[in-house]
Amino acid sequence: MVKIVLADDHPIVRQGIRHVLETQSQFSIVGEATDGLETIDLVQRLRPHVLILDLMMPALNGLEVTRIVARSFPETRILILTMHREEANVLAALRNGATGYAVKDASPAELVHAICEVTAGRRYLSPSLTARAIEAYVEKAIAQETDPYDTLTTREREILQLTTEGHSRAAIGTRLSISPRTVETHRTRLMRKLNLRTQADLIRYEIRRGILPKE
């Protein structure tokens, strides 16, 4: 039996995926998460074989969840299921440890096939995501300078996203079990590393990276 955790902040999407997978006797959905931090907690507790994960998640985006889960729980295969098909997102997901990347217009049969592929330890990409396009982006990325974002700690990345989502220092501290003063210390450090000055700079940076959606 393949144990699966679903992570998507839209209930109707989770319901649709569950409806598809419950027709397959080899799959068991053991948990559902609505934000990134909750996803990590569920993976830690339930140790699923597969995590089906959206990219645009509140609290901690899917790329960061992928990086943390791949590093801390390598036995869990990660299948990104998203509406975003840009090569930059595909590459980032694969670099962070995702085993598969599928788009939400995939058919039920394609989703089942994707899960079977990643469960077997093979990489899966939706047919619309061509290997040639990804290879071209890799070549471009190699030529670029080191990304300052890569210098941020996991805690700084958490605070970066929660801050740009509009949470106060007190609310972030409560969510992460740290003091507001510690939140501000991390926030100051991350802004220095990214060469950002204002809250508006933070929001623009997150949108540019694709961590926050364009409204």
Protein architecture, described:
- This protein is of the alpha/beta class.
- It is built from 10 helices and 6 strands.
- Helix 7 crosses helix 10 and helix 8 (169-176) crosses helix 9 (180-194).
- The termini are far apart.
CATH architecture of the largest domain: 3-Layer(aba) Sandwich
Counted up, domains total: 2
Mean pLDDT: 87
Query: Which fold name is given in CATH as the topology of the largest domain?
Result: Rossmann fold
Number of helices: 10
Beta-strand percent range? 5-15%
The Rg value, from CA coordinates, equals 17 Å
**What is the name of the CATH superfamily of the largest domain?**
Response regulator
C-alpha termini separation: 40 Å
Features:
10 helices, about 15% strand, Arc Repressor Mutant, subunit A, 2 domains, Rossmann fold, alpha/beta, six-stranded parallel beta sheet, 6 strands
